Amino acid sequence: MIRRFAKGLEIAKEDRIDVVVNGEGVEVVCTPENLVELAAGVAVTRFGLKDIVSVEVKGKTVYVEAGCKAESEAGSERVKKQELRSELSGITVKELQKMIGYLDVEEYRNTRGYHIAAAVKDGEVVARMHDVSRHSVLAKVIGSCTIRSIDVKNCYVLFSGRISRSIVEMCYTAEIPLIASKAAIFDSAIDFCLKSGVNAVSFASGLIVGKRVTIE
Fold first, then answer.
1. What stretches in the chain show pLDDT beneath 70?
2. CB of 52 closer than 8 Å to CB of 37
3. Are residues 93 and 169 in the same domain?
4. Does residue 159 share a domain with residue 108?
5. What is the pLDDT of residue 6?
6. What is the pTM of this model?
7. Strand order in 15-21's β-sheet?
8. Distances in Å between the alpha carbon of 44 and those of 1, 33, 48, 99?
9. Please, how many CA atoms are within 13 Å of residue 92, restricted to the half-sphere of its CB?
10. Residue-level pLDDT at 81
11. Residue 60 phi/psi, 5° resolution?
12. In total, how many domains does the chain have?
């Protein structure tokens, strides 16, 4: 029996999807929407492949063909070789506090079960997604920017979830210079920010971390 409280919230959707990138598959926990964007984001953040040739959805499997690049390492392996160089500038805490309001979307209000992420370029939201998984919602935003040829080096990400090391690694691999969250940041994420060049703002923790973007 399912009992529904008077509040009448909808139930957030969760499923498991297989993403196959150039023949190599990974299972992803996600909300089964915007699967093209999700798969493209997985190709970028897990495989370090940004040249997306095609994305095809077949049931619960999404196939991605991506052009291989000389340096396709992601996350920790790549940071050993190269610190992220940012092209972002002129960001203020006041701006971030204002823009974080764009995370208050209908999908969250109706369910209280989704994470929200958005990419911002030149003060405008260029991509916004929802998902039950922190990692999948970030992948969707990154994938959306990738398939529309939006250069995320000039963007920052607004994020509703906690900033863990793996979240910062995803930003690093995608070359996103700044992530701002209304939630907390982990110590492991701080360590990775300082090593990688990714910047992070955690309003819950009251911290600005990083050295490649000047935030006033």
1. 1-6, 69-81, 212
2. no
3. yes
4. yes
5. 58
6. 0.91
7. 24-30, 15-21, 61-67, 51-58
8. 42, 18, 5, 25
9. 4
10. 56
11. -100, 20
12. 2
Instruction: Specify whether 138 is located in the same domain as 157.
Output: yes
Amino acid found at 175: E
Parent domain of 63: 15-72
Q: What is the pLDDT of residue 112?
A: 92
β-strand pairing of 124-131 with 115-121 = antiparallel
Residue 127 phi, psi dihedral angles, 5° rounding: -160, 135
CB-CB contact of 52 with 176 (8 Å)? no
- Positive or negative torsion for Cα 208, 37, 122, 49: positive
What is the model's pLDDT at position 85? 78
CATH of the domain at 126: 3.40.140.10
Question: Residue 8 domain-assigned?
Answer: no
Q: Are residues 125 and 146 in the same domain?
A: yes
Cα torsion 24, 27, 32, 38: sign: negative
Q: Which pLDDT score is estimated for 212?
A: 67
C-alpha–C-alpha distance, residues 178 and 5, integer Å: 39
